[in-house]
């Protein structure tokens, strides 16, 4: 986790006893290819733009964030800028099961908000960030609570960003969806469903992504209203979640 925070592209979990090597490292070749093409930036360029003006929380607003390769550093950058009364936030980050609890604990130390690994039945409350546990369930929002749903992988992932976004789109509450760096297309269709349901939607821009895969797929599908560099993402999220104004125009 420390290596991922300072720019390592990805990680591979140690195989459990009895798991065949082919199964444990089935995606290793693809991860190596992605690492070779990734945009790893020097640490000194990762400054965060501050939020202008006071943030006034909307207690009904729900924020959903999806990320994959490069997402550890991106989430740390964003959540460390969140205030203690941030919107209720659900996060699906593609990560092995053994990583997510300690990752949530690291984020909790870096953020004024309360960050924890999501538990089934936990109420969605402002000032709280819920990280999807890695492994055998999808994180969804239902009836104002976190739910962990045992189901097959979607887009090759469990938890899946598409599943999270799709559930938030059905809440009938003010909402914002954010898709960050990552390979593949998980989250694109779910973010489109959120936008069609009235959500504000943001995507990380190509220049600041480690891998411009998921945000590209979402943008090309028409799911992203605005693309922003990582340094501007936190204030844009807070602005989106604070109050409703006129619908923004699509920005390339």
Question: What keyword list fits this structure?
Answer:
disordered C terminus, about 250 residues, two-stranded antiparallel sheet, 7-stranded parallel sheet, alpha/beta, single chain
Task: Explain how this protein is built.
- The protein is an alpha/beta fold.
- 31% of the residues lie in helices and 17% in strands.
- It has a single domain, classed as 3-Layer(aba) Sandwich (Rossmann fold), CATH 3.40.50.180.
- The strands form 2 sheets. A 7-stranded parallel sheet has the order 3-4-2-1-7-8-9, with helices on both faces. Strands 5-6 form a two-stranded antiparallel ribbon.
- A hairpin with a 2-residue loop joins strand 5 and strand 6 (145-149).
- Helix 4 packs across helix 9, helix 6 runs parallel beside helix 7 and helix 7 (188-196) packs across helix 8.
- The chain starts with a helix and ends in a 10-residue tail after the last helix.
């Amino acid at each position: 986790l420390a290596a991922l925070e300072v720019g390592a592209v990805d990680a591979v979990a140690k195989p459990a006893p009895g798991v065949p090597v082919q199964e444990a490292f089935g995606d290793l070749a693809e991860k190596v290819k992605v690492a070779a093409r990734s945009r790893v930036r020097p640490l000194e360029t990762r400054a965060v733009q501050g939020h202008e003006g006071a943030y006034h929380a909307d207690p009904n607003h729900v924020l959903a964030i999806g990320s994959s390769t490069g997402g550890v550093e991106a989430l740390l950058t964003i959540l460390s800028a969140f205030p203690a009364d941030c919107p209720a936030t659900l996060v699906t980050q593609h990560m092995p099961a053994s990583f997510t609890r300690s990752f949530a604990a690291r984020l909790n130390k870096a953020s004024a908000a309360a960050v924890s690994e999501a538990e089934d039945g936990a109420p969605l409350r402002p000032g709280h960030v819920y990280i999807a546990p890695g492994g055998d369930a999808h994180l969804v929002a239902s009836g104002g609570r976190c739910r962990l749903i045992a189901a097959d992988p979607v887009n090759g992932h469990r938890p899946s960003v598409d599943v999270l976004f799709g559930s938030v789109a059905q809440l009938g509450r003010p909402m914002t969806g954010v898709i960050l760096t990552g390979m593949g297309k998980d989250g694109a269709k779910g973010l489109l469903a959120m936008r069609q349901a009235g959500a504000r939607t943001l995507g990380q821009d190509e220049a600041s992504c480690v891998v411009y895969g998921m945000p590209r797929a979402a943008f090309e599908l028409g799911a992203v209203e605005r693309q922003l560099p990582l340094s501007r993402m936190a204030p844009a999220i807070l602005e989106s979640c604070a109050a409703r104004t006129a619908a923004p125009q699509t920005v390339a």
